[in-house]
Design a protein that fits this description.
By secondary structure, the chain is mostly helical. The protein has a domain of about 100 residues: Alpha Horseshoe (Serine Threonine Protein Phosphatase 5, Tetratricopeptide repeat), CATH 1.25.40. The protein has 21 helices and no strands. The longest helix is centred in the last third of the chain and has 21 residues. It is globular and about 80 Å long.
């Protein structure tokens, strides 16, 4: 049997259809000037480089922001220092995997070497060992607190490992130190978009857009936040600026997500289909294409689109949430929880995800556990109608009739309020 679904049950608590949230989308406008860089140590006259080898996450990865200057390694015959020289030489030659055991060996003898710790962190990040990279960066920062380049690389490691909240907190520190540097500002905006903090993004990017009115990367982030915050008129001004640069997958993606928010689902599907045709590798394109397919009744096609998105970006919030919901509808609860819990890692505290997890708890017989979570959800979001509906059912299951009746009355009041807001004649 084909799956059907009420999309509002997924995006409850006032959640609207989201627009793209990743800085990578800006790379179209920034161009390809930043080449994919290996995380290698840089030779310099100072031990700490005061600039960041920043590139867009997921599509590109940063060069190491901390460098060990060869002249700074005082000519010694000490075998331990020779190990560090070998590590740096391998690292600079691109043999990162060969450099890692050398750094590790050196740090056994010199565990407080900030430079070796930071270089090892960058090497770990290069091979995808983000948890280990985070650990080494933290040790380096313990040795030199507030080092902005290391903080930046730590934020990027958090980002790549899906710890968006920690990435944002770290990037705020970097932004406070260097508010005029648009690189950490862009990534901070991206993290906040992924976390649903649209107003914060608007406040952050609006002054940047005034200073850099022709920067389409800035325009893209600001426009996305405005549309997601339902400030359609302001958002349209920014969108028009982007569209003047011609048709592209990126422009089609922004148009499609805008139409999703305006509930023009057929129009959204048309634009997003074109975006997929123009550039199927564009980050987020399959995620929002999947949403358009869902809203036009093609659940099977939507699930396939979400899985294609996750194949290239496992940390896409929408794709994780929607696959979790689809699997829940198939009563594949374990599979659903895998995706829903990861969505909650990406957006800690998200009410829509928490609701889906609570409904699974209830379906699996955990009425008391579901009750506690649903009570917390409706307390935080009193107008989350679907959560009130499910909570009423939970109360009745627990033989708490008075509480169930109270929730039913709340649902009736919320439905009446929603009816009053609809256009047309209202019967009293």
């Amino acid at each position: 049997m084909a799956r059907t679904r009420d999309f509002s049950r997924v995006s409850g608590a006032g959640t609207r259809v989201a627009c793209p949230s990743h800085v990578e989308l800006c790379s179209y406008f920034l161009g390809r000037a930043l080449e994919a860089a290996t995380a290698t140590p840089i030779r310099a006259a100072a031990s700490i480089i005061g600039c960041i080898g920043f590139v867009m996450p997921r599509m590109l990865w940063p060069v190491l922001a901390v460098a060990l200057c060869a002249p700074g390694l005082k000519a010694q015959s000490d075998q331990t220092e020779n190990i560090l020289r070998q590590a740096i030489s391998l690292h600079q030659a691109g043999n990162v995997e060969g450099a890692i055991p050398k750094y590790e060996a050196y740090l056994k003898a010199r565990p407080d070497s900030m430079l070796a710790l930071a270089n090892l962190g960058a090497a770990y990040a290069h091979v995808g060992r983000y948890g280990d990279a985070i650990s080494e960066y933290k040790k380096a920062l313990a040795s030199e607190p507030g080092n902005a380049p290391i903080e930046m690389n730590l934020a990027l490691a958090y980002y790549k490992s899906g710890q968006i909240d920690d990435a944002a907190k770290t990037l705020q520190k970097v932004h406070q130190v260097s508010p005029a540097d648009t690189r950490p500002t862009l990534l901070l905006a991206d993290c906040w978009l992924a976390m649903g903090k649209n107003k914060e993004v608007i406040d952050l990017m609006s002054p940047v857009a005034e200073r850099q009115p022709d920067d389409l990367a800035v325009a893209y982030l600001l426009g996305t936040a405005l549309v997601r915050d339902n400030q359609v008129e302001r958002g349209q001004v920014v969108i028009d600026k982007i569209l003047r640069n011609g048709d592209s997958a990126e422009a089609r993606l922004l148009l499609g997500t805008t139409k999703l928010g305006a509930m023009d689902f057929a129009g959204a599907l048309q634009d997003l289909t074109k975006a997929v045709e123009l550039n199927p590798k564009l980050p987020d394109v399959y995620s929002y294409y999947g949403l358009a397919l869902l809203r036009t009744g093609d659940a099977a096609g939507a699930e396939n689109a979400f899985r294609q998105e996750l194949a290239s970006n496992p940390n896409d919030f929408n794709a994780n949430l929607q696959i979790g919901v689809l699997l829940k509808q198939d009563e594949n609860y374990e599979g659903a929880l895998k995706y829903l819990r990861h969505a909650l890692d990406i957006r800690p505290g998200d009410l829509a995800v928490r609701y889906q997890i609570a409904s699974i708890d209830f379906a699996r017989g955990g009425a008391e556990q579901a009750r506690k979570e649903l009570e917390s959800i409706v307390k935080e979001s009193p107008k989350f109608t679907e959560a009130h509906v499910t909570l009423a059912t939970v109360y009745y299951r627990l033989k708490r009739k008075d509480d169930g009746d109270r929730e039913r009355a709340t649902v009736a009041a919320l439905n009446a309020e929603a009816q009053e807001k609809q256009p047309g004649v209202h019967v009293k």
